[in-house]
Write a structure and sequence with these properties.
Layout: H1 4-19, H2 21-46, H3 50-67, E1 76-78, H4 83-89, H5 103-127, H6 129-133, H7 138-160, H8 164-180, H9 184-187, H10 189-203, H11 230-236, H12 239-258, H13 263-284, E2 290-292, H14 294-303, H15 308-322, H16 325-332, H17 336-360, H18 368-386, E3 390-394, E4 397-401, H19 403-417, E5 423-428, E6 432-437
Antiparallel strand pairs: 1-2, 3-4, 5-6
Helix pairs in contact: 2-3, 2-15, 3-13, 3-15, 4-11, 5-11, 5-12, 5-13, 7-12, 7-17, 7-18, 7-19, 8-10, 8-17, 12-13, 12-14, 12-19, 14-17, 18-19
């Protein structure tokens, strides 16, 4: 790891500590904006409760931070990877209403998927992180991080094209405040971008408040306990094999952003355990599976404030919103074009972090094996994502691997079998274990 990495991290933490609580709370609200759109989209597509989803995202994030010793600035929101599982077990009814009879059984399957995370965390604890990370050098994780941003990019364009004027207003405001803003304006460019674009939408008559009167001011999130069925478990449980690969990529992306090796400290076993338990907790009470969010990683990269307490504040906002349907409704009135404008830069920042990860770890692309590995990962991630991944049948059950999961598998296998490795996972001190490269001679 480069010499300035630990300094880079410390500067980010110091920024949050010295800002004071009012400004830090505003930063937390900014992370809430970043996660909100994607988090509520999953219940809209599956029929699960939006209020319950927000509650479980907040509680799951706090549980994750507890298990990871409060060191990892990650927000856990709804996972899109399980949409296929919900569609198979509890498809929406012909009239578009939720399949309330089968949704609890789908949640039961998600619980068992979360348990697989816990099993893998235990294996890592037993067999040590070095043996695991031997398969995840920066030449693998870097392109995977790049792929995460590129895969998300089309959704940003889809949202932005619904109204390019609003999208460009949001994008221009974010860029302006991030580059030329002073003081707090430079630290919360996303909130300012959303507010400016939202005011523009109001003036243009593009905000609809007609349904706000039907929403209660305060209400408890509905809780539906999970139920268990062997068919639902077999259908949904294997999805965890793909999402665990994505988890490693997400944690690597956060680490590359902050300059801290979270896979070593607090440890991949802890991040997997936190993600798995958060998913189990959410599913038990009728929420979707949780996963670490790339959207919030983009916010970290943009603001350069990495204090995990900011993320915990965002989690508290999510919990608060789950009890206030009217406020949640107002947030939902933000036009998708504004979300698209914000996402244009956030998703690009994720890919940029992947590029920085390769540069800072001095990945040598004069080494042909490194070029081949990166090429295979990028093409697999984008190509298979375009066709919906790969679906195959095991014991009568259809299993779908996403493009990102396929890319991770391809990268791991290629790295394992190709000769001329120039990667070593070395221990440097008691606190950290860094990824390093050996000199390569043509």
């Amino acid at each position: 790891m480069p010499e300035n990495s630990s300094t880079h991290l410390q500067e980010g933490i110091t920024d949050a500590l010295t800002l004071g609580w009012p400004k830090t709370i505003l930063l937390g609200l900014q992370h809430t904006f970043a996660m909100f759109g994607a988090t509520v989209l999953v219940p809209l597509l599956t029929g699960l409760s939006i209020q319950t989803t927000l509650l479980m995202a907040g509680l799951g994030t706090l549980l994750f931070h507890l298990i990871t010793k409060g060191k990892v600035p990650a927000f856990l929101g709804s996972s899109f990877a399980f949409l296929g599982g919900y569609a198979a077990v509890a498809p929406m009814l012909p009239d578009g209403s939720p399949n309330e009879e089968m949704l609890p059984y789908a949640c039961g399957g998600v619980i068992f998927a979360g348990l697989l995370y816990i099993v893998l965390a235990g294996l890592i604890k037993v067999f040590t992180i070095e043996k695991v990370m031997h398969f995840f050098p920066p030449v693998v994780t870097g392109p995977i991080i790049i792929s995460i941003g590129l895969i998300l990019a089309p959704s940003a364009i889809e949202n932005a094209k619904t109204d390019w004027v609003l999208a460009l207003i949001a994008l221009a405001a974010i860029i302006f405040f991030n580059m030329w803003g002073r003081g707090m304006a430079k630290i919360v460019p996303i909130i300012l971008g959303v507010l400016i674009a939202y005011i523009a939408a109001l003036l243009m008559g593009k905000i609809d408040f007609s349904g706000i009167g039907a929403e209660a001011a305060v209400a408890l999130p509905p809780i539906t306990l999970a139920k268990f069925d062997i068919s639902a478990i077999i259908t949904i449980m294997p999805i965890a094999l793909a999402t665990m690969m994505e988890h490693i990529g997400d944690i690597s992306a956060i680490g590359a952003t902050t300059g801290h090796n979270y896979i070593a400290n607090p440890g991949l076993h802890r991040t997997l355990l936190g993600d798995g338990l958060a998913t189990c907790l959410a599913a038990i009470f009728g929420g979707p599976a949780n996963t670490t969010y790339g959207e919030n990683t983009g916010v970290l990269a943009l603001t350069k404030v990495y204090d995990p307490r900011v993320i915990r504040i965002a989690a508290c906002f999510a919990i608060l919103l789950s009890f206030i349907p009217k406020f949640a409704y107002i947030i939902e009135t933000i036009p998708s074009a504004i979300i698209g404008g914000v996402s244009l830069i956030l998703y690009g920042m994720i890919s940029a972090v992947g590029i920085r990860n390769l540069v800072e770890n001095h990945v040598n692309f004069k080494n042909t094996r490194n070029t081949i590995i990166a090429a295979l990962i990028l093409v697999s991630a984008l190509g298979f994502n375009e066709i919906g991944g790969i679906t195959f049948t095991v014991a009568g059950t259809d299993i779908n691997l996403s493009g990102l999961a396929i890319a991770a598998i391809v990268g791991i296998v290629a790295n394992a079998i190709l000769p001329n490795k120039d990667y070593e996972f070395e221990e440097e001190g008691e606190e950290e274990k860094f990824q390093t490269y050996k000199p390569y001679i043509d």
